[in-house]
Design goal:
Layout (H helix, E strand, L loop, with lengths): L1 H12 L1 H57 L3 E9 L8 E4 L12 E4 L2 E9 L4 E5 L7 E5 L5 E6 L6 E8 L9 E4 L11 E10 L5 E8 L8 E6 L1 H15 L2
Antiparallel strand pairs: 1-2, 1-12, 2-5, 3-4, 3-12, 4-5, 6-7, 6-9, 7-8, 8-11, 9-10, 10-11
Helix pairs in contact: 1-2
Length: 247
């Protein structure tokens, strides 16, 4: 209390000390106001950065949505099986849905959740499917999601087995491994199951091995299928045909 009385008396009695105390008070007040202003500006910048990040996230999501809409989703439909491979020795499948039902040439066909074939022709109410069992057909597959891509061909006279060719010997393959589509042929999306590895045929003098596959699409028992079509694939095929035809 005495110290406070002394300071008050000195402040009212001596002008020099009063001026010094006033200057010190003004400096302290200015410093505090500057600190408060900096804090307020920092809060405003923080809120502004938050709004910018949210806007960037919204724009990125909108851009991805536009890209997806541009490429177009996979279109699907279901159909019943009128003819299965093996009937009368034929490698073809006939469905009870055609052009009027949305089935189009180029659409992939799934049976029992596995790749089964490709629609190559349609009538108004029927579709003709080139299946995995056709002796002149080749399909792009890989062993698992990360394995080496290879060519899948049919085993002559069989509607349950196929062969994956051109698999490097360096790749470890075991019976029971899953064979999946690559998506490179434009018929199916990537990673659609095709079947399971049943056997491996290799020659010590060859750099490649042949893998025997049991089809997951059980053609003799197949009664219902699903077809998948991607409009973008038709554009890509058209682009390739046009450029291949040029000299």
């Amino acid at each position: 209390m005495l110290w406070g009385v002394a300071l008050g008396w000195m402040n009212t009695t001596y002008s020099h000390h009063r001026t010094a105390l006033s200057g010190w008070s003004m400096r302290m007040t200015g410093s505090w106001m500057n600190t408060a202003g900096d804090f307020q500006e920092w809060k405003q910048l923080e809120a502004s950065n938050t709004r910018i990040m949210l806007e960037n996230a919204r724009l990125r999501a909108e851009l991805e949505s536009l890209k997806e809409a541009r490429s177009g989703p996979w279109q699907s439909g279901s159909a019943g099986v009128l003819r299965s491979p093996g009937w009368g020795g034929s490698p073809w499948m006939v469905l009870n849905r055609g052009g009027r039902d949305g089935a189009t040439p180029g659409a992939g066909v799934l049976s029992m959740g596995h790749a089964a074939g490709l629609i190559v022709d349609t009538t108004a109410k029927e579709s003709l499917v080139l299946t995995l069992t056709h002796p002149e057909a080749q399909w792009s597959v890989r062993l698992g999601r990360t394995g080496q891509a290879g060519r899948l061909v049919s085993v002559k006279g069989s509607v349950t087995r196929g062969l994956v060719m051109d698999v490097p010997r360096a790749q470890l393959v075991l019976p029971g491994d899953t064979v999946m589509t690559t998506g490179f042929d434009g018929v199916f999306p990537a990673d659609v199951p095709v079947g399971l590895v049943s056997d491996i045929v290799s020659d010590e003098a060859d750099e490649f091995q042949t893998v025997e596959v049991s089809f997951g699409a059980n053609f003799p028992r197949s009664r219902h299928v699903v077809w998948l079509a991607q409009p973008r694939n038709q554009r890509l095929d058209s682009l390739i045909r046009v450029n291949t035809a040029q000299p």
